[in-house]
C-alpha cells in the first residue's frame, strides 16, 4: 500500500474540506476511497466534484465494500464512537472527529474496543496538536523551563455565533442532537490542549449559563475553576456571544511564565532564580529597586515567538500523520484514546453546573448520563422552535 484509501463519512463542511485537501494533493499519502452520506443531495455534490469516487448512503456498506482502508467520521458527535467501533470491527482504520463522543461512557467503549485491535490505527482529529506554537508551549512545560505550574488561565471567547448559526438545523445546539453547546462544538480543541499541556485537573467548579444570549437549550457561556490537586489552580472561560472575542492562554510556573495571544504569538519569560529563591533571598529594598523602574532583565529573560498558520495545514498534518502510522508505523501525534480526556473535562464542567457543586474527575459516568438524559427529556417537553 502506497496511499491510504480514506472513506469520508459525512460530506458536510468538514468532510467536504477533507475531500478537497486530498483532491488538491495536500495529503500526499492519502486518496479518497469512497464517500458516504445519507442526504440524497450530497450524492449529486459528490458526483459533480468526485465523479470517479464510489458513493454510499449507508456507512456499513462502505466499510464492507473493499473500497476503503480507513475512515474519518464527519458526523454528529454522538455517532463518533459507534462508527469508530464498526470500522475497527471490520479491520478498517479509524480517524474520529473531535470530540471523541458526548460522554465518557461511550468513549470508553470505543477506547476499550480499539485496544483489542492494536494492529489498527486509531486516531482523533486534534489538529491543534500539530500547531507549532502549542508544540513549543508543551515542550517548554515538559522540559521544566518554567518549573512547576502554579496557575493556568485560558479565556477563549473568539467563537462568536449569531442566532442564524444555531437556526441552520433542528439538531444543532440541542442536548439530543449535539450533546451540548460551546464545550462540545467550539472548544474541544482548547480542552484537549489544556490537559495535554498542563495535565488533567482533579476537581472543577463551574458557572455555566444555558441559552444565556442565544435562543438555545445548551450552553453559550462558561466560567470554570480548575483545581489540579497540588495547589495549582486554573480558570477556563469560553462563550459564543463575544463579537470582540479574546484568545489568551497564560501558564504561571515557579520559574517563569508563558503567555499565548490569539494562538499566534507566545511570550516565554524565564526567571533566573525560582520565585521562592527570590523571595527567600531578596530584601524588600532590593526588590523595590528592581521592580520600580529597575532593569527587569536581571530577573528574567524574555523570548517572543510568532507563528504563521495556513488554514487547513494542521488538519492535513493530522491526516498525513495518521496515514503514515498506517503505512509505516510513524507514531501518532493524536492517538484516538486521548480523546476521552477532553470529553471527561467537558462532562465535569457540565455536571458541576447541573449539580451546583464542585465535582471530582473522573466524574461518575452513570450520574452524568442520567443528568444528560434528564436534559434531553426536558428538551423534548419544551422544545425551542427554530
TrEMBL record:
InterPro entries in the record: Gfo/Idh/MocA-like_OxRdtase_N, Gfo/Idh/MocA_Oxidoreductase, GFO_IDH_MocA-like_dom, NAD(P)-bd_dom_sf
Any GO molecular function: nucleotide binding
Limits of the Gfo/Idh/MocA-like oxidoreductase N-terminal domain: 5-117
Domain (GFO/IDH/MocA-like oxidoreductase): residue spans on this chain: 134-258
PANTHER family in UniProt: D-GLUCOSIDE 3-DEHYDROGENASE, UDP-N-ACETYL-2-AMINO-2-DEOXY-D-GLUCURONATE OXIDASE
Protein name from the UniProt record: Dehydrogenase
Record organism: Virgibacillus phasianinus
